[in-house]
Amino acid sequence: MPNAFKNSSKIRDSLRTSVAMVQIKLLFALLAVMTIVLMEANTVSARDCLSGTFGGPCWAWSGEKCRRLCIEEGHVSGHCSGGMKCWCEGC
Questions:
Q1: Do residues 62 and 81 lie in contact, with contact meaning Cβ atoms separated by under 8 Å?
Q2: What residue spans define the domains of the chain?
Q3: Are 86 and 58 in contact (CB under 8 A)?
Q4: What does the alpha-carbon distance between residue 20 and residue 81 come to, in Å, rounded to a whole number?
Q5: 49 in the Ramachandran plot: left (φ > 0), alpha (ψ -120 to 50) or beta?
Q6: What is the pLDDT of residues 19-55, one digit of tens each?
Q7: CB atoms < 10 A from the CB of 64, how many?
Q8: Which of 3, 7, 22, 31 has the fewest CB atoms below 10 angstroms from its CB?
Q9: Are 78 and 89 in contact (CB under 8 A)?
Q10: Where in the cell is it found (predicted)?
Q11: pTM higher than 0.85 for the full model?
């Protein structure tokens, strides 16, 4: 009977280690995604500038509004960035 308890405790320890490894891998994956998003937000071209009239976060589905407002401001076009800001092109 004592061997059965020893084996079950080894299995439990092994499962805890496996769960911890999965959590660490998920944490690293999340950090990698966040790093990519932040790098994308910081790599805006020098000829782009923030829209002066667009208010709020610029989501993918509001790209047409961003583009239209930038054209009304006198710029070539506009797009939403990874940082959820409306950037006008051709400043």
A1: no
A2: 1-43, 45-91
A3: yes
A4: 35
A5: beta
A6: 777 888 888 888 888 777 776 666 555 688 999 999 9
A7: 10
A8: 3
A9: yes
A10: Secreted
A11: no
pLDDT at site 79:
94
CATH hierarchy code of domain 45-91: 3.30.30.10
SS3 77: strand
% of residues, the chain, pLDDT over 70: 81
Residue-level length of the chain: 91
Greatest pairwise CA separation for the chain in angstroms: 82
Span of 7-11, 15-19, 70-74 with lowest mean pLDDT:
7-11
The kind and range of the H/E element at 55 are none
Distance between CA 67 and CA 75 in Å, rounded? Answer: 9
- The residue whose two tokens read 């782009």 is 48
Q: Which tokens belong to 31?
A: 């950090």
Q: How far apart are CA 78 and CA 3, in angstroms?
A: 69
What are the φ and ψ backbone dihedral angles of 88, each rounded to 5 degrees? -95, 140
